[in-house]
């Protein structure tokens, strides 16, 4: 006859809980300047591919290049937030501008309530540098200044940008912030060789090497500035991938000394006229140059203005002694001549 099947036996077997796998990754989140000042950085630990037990949380420790090793700390998953993904954000008191190695392992709960700790995942991260402090400009003369600042944290390099425009204008300037495309000179290098022309008087940007010291000081000379111009300088501290917020300084270079023309020729055309020629080198960025010629006699004088470096003056009295003076007049501020 036909075979008959009996009832199937059902056996449920549960394997014992084991330690979780290693976390997938550890991520350092970018911080705002406010959080930088507080010294707190957010680290995200990505859950392991398999927990192999009831998820409990993570164990985290970190080491810095200065050998400041921190003991391991346990962080539990939030019980009140049930979710499919069990990644965890934690805040760590890391210092800016430093390299850290982070070690994370997952923690689970075994069958008898014991804590099971899995293998570690490690990553090396760099915190963003802090913005430079005490940015100042010391004027050497109308065309030269010394820019100084102090590092607030270790930094791989510093990015210095400058915008220049006339003091009475409000024109904005644009310059590239891609410091990786520039030459890296020593800290005493003048960066005006990288002048770029734009809709303002000029812009420049350069990068200099930084230091692993937290409070190192820097000085950089700036040459060939325009006198009587407003200059904006921004300095950022940069790491391998990101830069700090900028420290900004605005200063106005003093006006240049107005040169005195040198009379090179004086001739008597006839008994009632004189012909003068003079030499004068105009300052850089001169606007509205004009020469004033004064012909003086007995406390009175006649004033003649010209744009040329030569002039003929007539209607003079014959046989009379005159004192002649030539001065340069500039309009360095609109409507005001000096």
From TrEMBL:
Gene3D superfamilies, per database record: Immunoglobulins (2.60.40.10)
Residue ranges of domain Fibronectin type-III in the record: 20-115, 129-244, 255-335
SUPFAM superfamilies: Fibronectin type III
Keyword terms of this UniProt record: Repeat
Source organism superkingdom: Eukaryota
InterPro entries: ECM_Regulatory_Proteins, FN3_dom, FN3_sf, Ig-like_fold
PANTHER family named among the record's database cross-references: FIBRONECTIN TYPE-III DOMAIN-CONTAINING PROTEIN, TENASCIN
Protein name, UniProt field: Fibronectin type-III domain-containing protein
The organism of origin for this protein: Rhipicephalus pulchellus
Organism classification: Eukaryota, Metazoa, Ecdysozoa, Arthropoda, Chelicerata
